[in-house]
UniProtKB/TrEMBL annotation:
<dbReference type="InterPro" id="IPR029058">
    <property type="entry name" value="AB_hydrolase_fold"/>
</dbReference>
<dbReference type="GO" id="GO:0097176">
    <property type="term" value="P:epoxide metabolic process"/>
</dbReference>
<comment type="similarity">
    <text>Belongs to the peptidase S33 family.</text>
</comment>
<dbReference type="InterPro" id="IPR000639">
    <property type="entry name" value="Epox_hydrolase-like"/>
</dbReference>
<dbReference type="InterPro" id="IPR016292">
    <property type="entry name" value="Epoxide_hydrolase"/>
</dbReference>
<feature type="active site" description="Proton donor">
    <location>
        <position position="321"/>
    </location>
</feature>
<dbReference type="GO" id="GO:0004301">
    <property type="term" value="F:epoxide hydrolase activity"/>
</dbReference>
<feature type="active site" description="Nucleophile">
    <location>
        <position position="199"/>
    </location>
</feature>
<dbReference type="InterPro" id="IPR010497">
    <property type="entry name" value="Epoxide_hydro_N"/>
</dbReference>
<protein>
    <submittedName>
        <fullName>Alpha/beta-hydrolase</fullName>
    </submittedName>
</protein>
<feature type="domain" description="Epoxide hydrolase N-terminal">
    <location>
        <begin position="16"/>
        <end position="131"/>
    </location>
</feature>
<keyword id="KW-0378">Hydrolase</keyword>
<feature type="active site" description="Proton acceptor">
    <location>
        <position position="380"/>
    </location>
</feature>
<dbReference type="Pfam" id="PF06441">
    <property type="entry name" value="EHN"/>
</dbReference>
């Protein structure tokens, strides 16, 4: 058995080892599409160099440089090899109605009998790639014999290497959370696991903590919500909270248009962005640039966009955005809704350049907040931007809430 691949004795199913390999023909076609896809002419709007909430979107200059790098310098095979250097798996999960889904995940299994099961959930426009830097840190920090955790990083349904939602049934975040729970139970963690997430992954984690007994604790680095009715006065906010809280309002006003498009006309935007890799790059790169504390590298952005394109997953990854448009909006927003309160131990990491960094006192209204840490840097893609800091947060949180003697919190 290779390192970190020994399943726990409690596993109910045996996943299939998976290795990502895009065919030479697919890769050739992809490169040809990049070459043939034009960059639009110069306009007043796409000349603006601001990359923040006040900009008009992605700039033409950035796109020209990114396209040249994509064509001539980006090495997909190197990224593919890096992905395959981690243990990748697929496991068939049967839903309550009998439908079968192939769920992809990356995992580091520990040989310690008291290892804590820890699931890390990505968001949009992210993927399991966000957590590879953390997995790399863990591989360097621990051996399979002393790794304190069973780390599971799933691809959510509809994203990259997991099955898409069904075409004859509506699907939402609660459905995806149910499959994630079934995955963790199949891997042997019915007695207890910890969920962590940002963006859509924070919704998955909150649902698991609020509605599934096996989820014993939840750590979030995103908890966008409306101001609670009984929130303390703003004068009691920390200096960082007071300074960065307005980012949420700016985001709703100037950075939220994609939500309306993906939530109300997903078929249209799905068609548009499946027609050209350059179009997909513009749509997704803008989010990576605007939502990060420091600009990600071309390789980081192009790896994610390439994976989205090569797995044809963009149209099947945006179903979560329909929820507030199809259902009665949850009072207080999803994270602030009473129905989603997490009564288990809840942890929250504050990264100031998040699109909507929430004060500790607000998040405390959404559950049993027992752990909190405020950072000086970091944005929306915390696992990618600040892997050392987020890993330290999660490790400290787990150590503070997990009773190793009983394997419960």
């Amino acid at each position: 058995m290779a390192p970190y691949e020994t399943l726990p004795d409690t596993a109910k199913s045996t996943p299939t080892k998976f290795e990502l390999h895009v065919s030479d023909q697919e890769l050739s076609d992809f490169k040809q599409l990049i070459r043939l896809s034009p960059i639009t002419q110069e306009t007043y709007e796409n000349r603006q160099q601001e990359v923040d909430f006040k900009s008009y979107g992605i700039t033409r200059a950035w796109m020209l440089e990114a396209k040249e790098y994509w064509q001539n310098k980006f090495d997909w095979r190197a990224h593919e090899a890096h992905i395959n250097s981690f243990p990748n798996y697929k496991l068939k999960i049967r839903d309550d109605d009998g439908r079968e889904f192939d769920i992809h995940f990356v995992a580091l299994f520990s040989e310690k009998r008291d290892a804590v099961p820890l699931a890390l959930f990505h968001g949009w426009p992210g993927s399991f790639l966000e957590f590879l830097p953390i997995l790399d840190l863990l591989r360097r920090k621990y051996t399979p014999q002393d790794l304190p955790y069973h780390i599971v990083v799933p691809s959510l349904p509809g994203y990259t290497l997991s099955s898409p939602p069904p075409v004859d049934k509506d699907w939402d975040t609660f459905d995806s959370a149910r499959l994630m729970h079934k995955l963790l139970v199949a891997l042997g963690f019915e007695a207890g696991y910890v969920a962590q997430g940002g963006d859509i992954g924070s919704y998955i984690s909150r649902i698991l903590g609020a509605h599934y007994v096996s989820c014993r604790a939840v750590h979030l680095n995103f908890s966008m919500m409306r101001k609670p009715d009984n929130a303390p006065p703003d004068s009691e906010l920390s200096a960082a909270e007071a300074k960065f809280l307005p980012r949420g309002g700016e985001f709703v006003k100037l950075g939220h248009a994609y939500v309306a498009m993906q939530g109300t006309k997903p078929a249209t935007i799905g068609m548009c962005l499946s027609a050209s890799p350059i179009a997909l790059l513009a749509w997704i790169a803008e989010k990576f640039l605007a939502w990060s504390d420091q600009d990600p590298s071309f390789d980081q952005i192009l790896e994610s966009v390439s994976l989205y394109w090569l797995t044809r997953c963009f149209p099947t990854s945006i179903y979560t955005y329909r929820f507030p448009y199809q259902h009665e909006p949850l009072v207080g927003g999803f994270h602030g809704a009473k129905s989603q309160r997490v009564l288990k131990p809840l942890g929250y990491s504050f990264f100031p350049y998040e699109v909507a960094p929430m004060p500790k006192s607000w998040v405390a209204e959404t559950g049993n907040l027992v752990w909190h840490r405020e950072h000086e840097n970091g944005g929306h893609f915390a696992a990618l931007e600040k892997p050392e800091e987020l890993l330290a947060d999660v490790e400290d949180f787990v150590a503070s809430v997990w009773n190793k003697d009983s394997a419960k919190v």
